[in-house]
Amino acid sequence: MPSKKINVKAELLEGIKELCATNREVILVSLSTADGFYIKSFGSKVLNGEADKLAAMSSTISSLSDSSAKQILQNQFDMTIIESDAGNMLFVRTNYLGLPCVLTVAAQSKMALATDRYKTKILAQNISNILI
Questions:
Q1: pTM (global) more than 0.70
Q2: What are 42-61's pLDDT values in tens digits?
Q3: What is the DSSP secondary structure assignment for residue 6, as one 8-state letter?
Q4: Hey, which of 14, 76, 81, 119 has its CA 20 to 30 A from 68?
């Protein structure tokens, strides 16, 4: 567990807000530490009420993805995608203020997977560029 509350910087909020404002199909954006602690999320009231569970789930999925990639591909994971008829969920490895983190983005199926993937990777890169 982090020893202190993680600072939510304006650049993080702006990046999440921009992704959601320009892509109405996005229903959830969540950032958590790789070990499962919630940092910030945007989503419906129901999803925001489950922020701690979502952080733990994102951590678990990224950890399993990383273990699988290291075992089979001899490399760390970058992104895991869960596809369904209703939409897609993307789990992307990133860093925030020096902490290894997982960015989770869920979008309705109206959003093309390629677009979702591209915009999620851009946000993850922008998050990793935020300075302490």
A1: yes
A2: 986 656 678 889 999 999 99
A3: P
A4: 119
